[in-house]
Specification:
This protein has twelve helices and no strands. By secondary structure, the chain is mostly helical. It has one domain.
Length: 230
C-alpha cells in the first residue's frame, strides 16, 4: 500500500509542476474567487455571508484539485460552488426556506434556484431587485442551465468527457481538461457575481457600494447595463 500511495503522490506532484505553467489562469481564478469572498464581507445577513465564504472555499478547493490532477473532484467542487453561491441568493429571497435549510429540514434545491418563473434568474427576480437587468437575467438563465449541465457531465462521468483507455489507477496531466476547467470556472464566478450584483447593489449605501471589487464592474453584462455601451 505504501508503494501505491507513494506512486500516486509522485504522479500528483509531477502534475502539480506541469500545472504551475498555467500560473496566469490560476491567478485569474483565485482573483474571481476572492471577489466573491470580498462581496460576502459587505453583507449583514450572517447565513448569506457564510454561504458565500463557503462558495469561495469550494472554488479554491477546485483549483487545488486541478493543480494536483484530481480533475473530476475539481469539476465537482466547481459545481458545488455554483449551487451554494446561487443558493445563498435564493435563500436571501425565500427566508423560510433559508431557515429550513439552516435547521437541516431542507437542502438547496437546484430546480427551485433556477426556476424560470420564481428563481433567481427569472423576470420576477429582476423586476424586484434590478429591472434594467431583465434581458440580462434571461440570458444568464439560459447560460447557467447549460453550465450546470456541463459540470454535471464531468462530475458524473459521461463517457465522452473522460479518457477511459488506461489500465489501473494512474494520474496524469491533461491539458484539455485543464483548459475546460478554467473556462467553466470563469463562467461559474461570473454568474455568481452577476447575480450578487443584481440582488444587492441597490440595497447598498454609497459607501458600501464603493467597496465592491472593481472586477465586478468589468463583467460585460454589468458594464453594458451601467454605461449603455454594447
Amino acid at each position: 500500500m505504501n508503494e501505491y500511495l507513494n506512486r500516486i503522490n509522485n504522479e500528483s506532484q509531477a502534475i502539480f509542476k506541469e500545472s504551475l505553467k498555467e500560473e496566469e489562469q490560476f491567478t485569474n481564478a483565485h482573483r474571481m474567487s476572492a471577489c466573491i469572498f470580498e462581496f460576502a464581507q459587505l453583507l449583514t445577513e450572517t447565513n448569506e455571508k457564510k454561504m458565500l465564504i463557503t462558495t469561495s472555499e469550494h472554488l479554491e478547493a477546485a483549483s487545488m484539485n486541478l493543480a494536483l490532477g484530481f480533475y473530476r473532484q475539481a469539476f465537482a467542487s466547481l459545481k458545488l460552488a455554483l449551487e451554494v453561491g446561487l443558493g445563498a441568493v435564493y435563500f436571501s429571497v425565500y427566508k423560510m426556506e433559508d431557515y429550513e435549510w439552516q435547521n437541516g429540514i431542507a437542502d438547496v434545491q437546484w430546480q427551485k434556484v433556477i426556476d424560470k418563473e420564481t428563481g433567481i434568474l427569472s423576470k420576477r427576480f429582476a423586476t424586484a431587485f434590478y429591472p434594467e437587468m431583465e434581458n440580462a437575467v434571461k440570458k444568464y438563465h439560459e447560460s447557467t442551465t447549460a453550465l450546470y449541465s456541463q459540470l454535471s457531465a464531468y462530475v458524473h462521468g459521461n463517457t465522452g468527457k473522460w479518457d477511459w483507455e488506461f489500465n489501473g489507477i494512474f494520474l496524469r496531466y491533461n491539458a484539455t481538461l485543464a483548459k475546460t476547467y478554467f473556462e467553466l470556472s470563469a463562467s461559474v464566478t461570473e454568474t455568481i457575481l452577476f447575480v450578487l450584483f443584481s440582488r444587492y447593489i441597490r440595497s447598498f449605501s454609497e459607501d458600501r457600494s464603493d467597496l465592491i471589487p472593481a472586477e465586478i464592474y468589468q463583467i460585460p453584462t454589468i458594464h453594458s447595463v451601467l454605461t449603455g455601451e454594447e
